[in-house]
Amino acid sequence: MIKNLRLDKYLTLKFPNYSRAFLKSQIKSGDVLVNGKAKKPSYVLKENDRVEINIKEKAATRLGPNQAIRLNVIYEDKNIVAIDKPAGISTHPAKPDETNTIANALLAYYPDIKEVGDEPNLRPGIVHRLDKDTSGILLIAKNNQAFEWLKKQFSQRKVVKRYLALTAGKMKEQQGVISKPVSRTQGTIKRTTAPILGVKEAITYYKVIQYFSCHPELVSGSHKMPKQASPERGRRVRHEENAFTFIEAEPKTGRTHQIRVHLASIGHPLAGDKLYGFKNQICPAGLKRHFLHASCLKISLPDGKMVELYSKLPEDLRLVLADLNSKNQLKKINL
Asked: What positions does the domain RNA-binding S4 occupy (predicted)?
């Protein structure tokens, strides 16, 4: 027995053929007992602790490859591949029988990643994720050594991630930091900054690139968000319906929906965000999704090389900005 070691880490050492995520699930399901009692994965083993293990194998259900989905590769070496993910496609499936995701495409072009990662049955090689309607840089590991290295970079907050976003209303501060814990709203996929159980620290920096303010009659083709859209319950700000702010956001942590939740919590949800946007929020003409794009990623690779990757704003979002810029009462920018 190895004392002063977390239970999940002990199992990872004892069963190297299983992923840590799988072993954690065994602990949480009660199939691993310490001194006859269920414990959390974070439990620290003590001298003379007796660990009982009854690992239950799951039936292997593999994702199917889908070569019909084209990948736009922006960087590749023997350890990783970085792609420019389009909006409208999920990073990975929720269930193994789904076929129209980035993960299915990866299996078609990189079949060796089928054994890579914590959950290769659902997320082969995928180190982080982007929401379905978020576009931009997505990083994938080609082997388990690279996966563990990249995962460590993300968990230690050594990765620089920058996003371009358009928010509703005119943000008062030119730059700032949003430091609010994020947790899951019970029974839904939504996240919240409300102080409930299971909160995780979340930090997002932002800076303003451009303000847009147009006469209401000039925002032609704009539409209001559906009434069922529910805002993040936080600071509520009444702002001009015809104002928007183009920003760069840099999340220091990687919580699900973090940027979307944080911006909504300060009264400036993403333009086009149907999940976190305010009721009756004006959406710019031509915008068919939430305006969020992963434009830059800087990371240290397993070979020690530092790479900085970039993705240009896709055409659908560029056209939205161009339209707002043509009607803008404030100083214009070159797009």
From this structure: 5-68
CATH of the domain at 101: 3.30.2350.10
Same domain as 134, residue 15 = no
What is the domain count for the chain? Answer: 3
Q: What is the pLDDT of residue 20?
A: 72
How distant, in Å, are the alpha carbons of 85, 189, 199 from that of 184?
Answer: 25, 7, 8
Reported as type and span, the H/E element at residue 151 is helix 144-155
3-class DSSP state of 33: strand
Verify whether residue 323 is a known catalytic residue.
Answer: no
Whether residue 239 is predicted with pLDDT greater than 70 in this model: the reply is no
Q: Is residue 248 within 8 Å of residue 296, measured between CB atoms?
A: no
Residue 62 lies in a domain: no
Domain that holds residue 189: 160-326
CATH of the domain at 14: 3.10.290.10
Q: How confident is the model at residue 213 (pLDDT cuts 50, 70, 90)?
A: confident
CA atoms 86, 163, 114, 88: torsion sign: negative
Length of the chain, please?
335
d(CA 86, CA 243): 27
Give the three-state DSSP class for 260.
helix
Q: Name the nearest CA neighbour of 1 among 53, 52, 47.
A: 47
Answer yes or no: is 37 within a domain. Answer: yes
| 175, 208 Cβ separation under 8 angstroms | yes
| Residue in the block written with tokens 């968000």 | 225
Comparing C-alpha atoms, which of 84, 245, 225, 105 is closest to residue 165? 245
* 110, 138, 155 - which closes a domain: 155
* 58 — pLDDT class (breaks 50, 70, 90): low
Tokens of 205: 């920096």
Beta pairing partners, 38: 33
Among 131, 133, 273, 323, the active-site one is 131
